[in-house]
Amino acid sequence: MLPYPEINPVALELGPLKIHWYGLMYLIGIGGAWWLAARRLERFDPSWTRETLSDLVFWVAMGVILGGRLGYVLFYDPQLYLNDPIKIFYIMDGGMAFHGGLLGVLLCTWLFARKTGKPFFELMDFIAPLVPIGLGAGRIGNFINGELWGKVSDVPWAMVFPTGGPDPRHPSQLYQFALEGVALFVILWAYSRKPRPTMAVTGLFGLCYGVFRFIVEFFRVPDAQLGYLAFGWLTMGQLLCLPMILGGIGMIVWAYRRDARTA
Questions:
Q1: Which has the closest alpha carbon to 184: 245, 131, 233, 140?
Q2: Type and span of the H or E element at 137
Q3: Section 142-147 average pLDDT
Q4: CA 15 → CA 12, 18, 90, 142, distances in Å?
Q5: Domain range holding 135?
Q6: Does residue 214 lie in a domain region?
Q7: pLDDT in tens, 206-250
């Protein structure tokens, strides 16, 4: 068993103002993605200015935050927020959902594509390899908060989390950091370094993220208010990943078939 490194979730206190590590992880994710996007900008579109890129980052960030919050409300705890709608705005209390954030990013990217005249999937292929930076940073934030821990386990690297009872558990946040953050970034970055058919990078993102998240959910405790939703073992996270996996495969196949027809 490994000791859980208890880190104060509050990174900095300035009088009544408290800056949490979880919030800083969002800034790190957005800032890191912005920096890498700037490095790839000329290869993506030499006519784009840094100001245009800044606008895109702002739109995507809004999609992540608003979509992530609304996704959690709709997918994971709708009854709580129906009973007390004002809690929807209590973001500092936690409650963000990746799949909601993804829908928010898709919507904001579509709106930005219409605004700039850039094809939607060209933009998504540009954005997709940058997303794992934010995903990885977010999982580190979950780990620091001691939340979203895994099932009870006797593996040598199991940890006792402050809010998880006396039993050692899988550090599932670190599994997600390794797969959804590090591995997904390496796969997408390497794949996108060469020209690919439009939509293929986006499809690979959907496929890989869906598979990685589906696997980790077997080690993670489902949300208490939902539990298992199907067959006694499928979680909400896994159910939401199924269309991502199928859609990702479909986009990759469609992208390469269309490319072959136009070659």
A1: 131
A2: helix 131-145
A3: 92
A4: 10, 8, 21, 25
A5: 10-262
A6: yes
A7: 999 999 999 999 999 988 778 888 788 899 999 999 999 999 999
